[in-house]
Design a protein that fits this description.
Structural class: mainly alpha
Shape: globular
Largest sheet: 2 strands, antiparallel
Distance between the termini: 69 Å
Number of domains: 2
Number of strands: 4
Length: 332
């Protein structure tokens, strides 16, 4: 086994030591982890991505950020040069965690870039790297398209919609993805894309790559901005428009209780309202529907302000009022 010196970026503290390349890779991983905070709420919520799997763009990337209302539009897609698309594709093939899916993975990232998802002002999982030889990058794309020709239309929709669907899962379930609950999370994604009449999503990539690794870099802030900007635009599927007001997971109790109150018979509602603060519960539930991102526990990931002190105090009172009602099944 050949021994090599420490690669660039590893601080050996002056040690002149040679080790196998695999050992240096582990050391690099250790240093990367060591350079992070001991606890990072963003990582705990969104999941940790190895830097080697970050979205790669060529250093000479000069595309301006696409306006949020134009993400996913035909004119936006047509505005990208073949050179830029080929670079994104070729640079990201080696960044797929599972090499047997490298072509599909890279094509999805390329289509997400072409849809207009890149916004380096808010996205921390994008790295700028040396561009490949342009002709080589183009040949790589052209050669791989032969095997991917039947997926071109499919991946165009995926590149636009997966970040929007992922945001809803993050907001309402707490995370983009959970390996320990893979079946449950796959079901959440399936429910949404089937509602959007997109039943072919699942066969493109394995769930972990499709829902987590490939487009994780797009991030909650950009996802929210695009969603809110497109609520009146026809290309955004109707179910995603309807679900835009779904409250965050932390508000489940209040939201479910408010729905239960609404469903009560008039006589029962009048009788119970003397004991339970229905109006408080309903008002807080309505506030969370009006601005679900503000009430998310990780609101800062969306780049929005949290509830005020008064709003938090009201929220706590509403939580207590909802909890005091006991199991909702008794009111069904």
């Amino acid at each position: 086994m050949s021994l090599v010196s420490a690669p660039a970026g590893i601080n050996t503290g002056g040690l002149d030591v040679r080790m196998p390349a695999d050992s240096w890779a582990l050391i690099a991983n250790l240093q990367e982890v060591g350079g992070q905070d001991g606890y990072d709420v963003a990582i705990a919520t969104l999941g940790w991505m190895k830097r080697e799997h970050y979205m790669a763009l060529p250093k000479d990337w000069a595309r301006p950020t696409i306006p949020v209302a134009d993400v996913g539009s035909g004119p936006t897609g047509a505005s990208f040069s073949l050179r830029d698309l080929a670079q994104v594709y070729a640079l990201n093939k080696d960044r797929c965690p599972v090499k047997s899916y490298a072509a599909q993975f890279a094509l999805l990232r390329m289509e997400a870039a072409r849809a207009g998802w890149v916004d380096r002002s808010t996205q921390t999982e994008i790295v700028l790297v040396e561009p490949l030889h342009d002709v080589s990058a183009l040949r790589t794309l052209a050669q791989d398209l032969e095997a991917l020709r039947h997926k071109i239309d499919q991946v165009r929709s995926l590149g636009y919609l997966i970040p929007l669907i992922a945001e809803h899962v993050l907001r309402t379930k707490g995370h983009y993805w959970s390996t320990e609950q893979a079946d449950i999370y796959t079901g959440h994604y399936r429910d949404i894309y089937e509602a959007c009449l997109l039943p072919e999503f699942e066969d493109y990539l394995p769930p972990d790559l499709l829902y987590h690794q490939a487009l994780h870099w797009t991030g909650p802030s950009r996802q929210m901005q695009v969603l809110l900007a497109q609520l009146q635009i026809p290309r955004l599927p109707g179910p995603l428009k309807t679900m835009a007001s779904d409250p965050p997971a932390s508000m489940d109790l209040i939201s479910a209780t408010a729905k239960c109150i609404k469903a009560l018979r008039i006589g029962m509602k009048r009788k119970l309202s003397a004991t339970y603060d229905f109006e408080l519960i309903k008002s807080v539930a309505a506030a969370a529907e009006k601005d679900p991102f503000k009430y998310h526990k990780s609101y800062f990931l969306y780049g929005v302000d949290p509830p005020t002190k008064d709003e938090l105090a009201t929220l706590r009172k509403a939580m207590e009022a909802a909890a005091n009602m006991g199991p909702l099944s008794q009111w069904a």
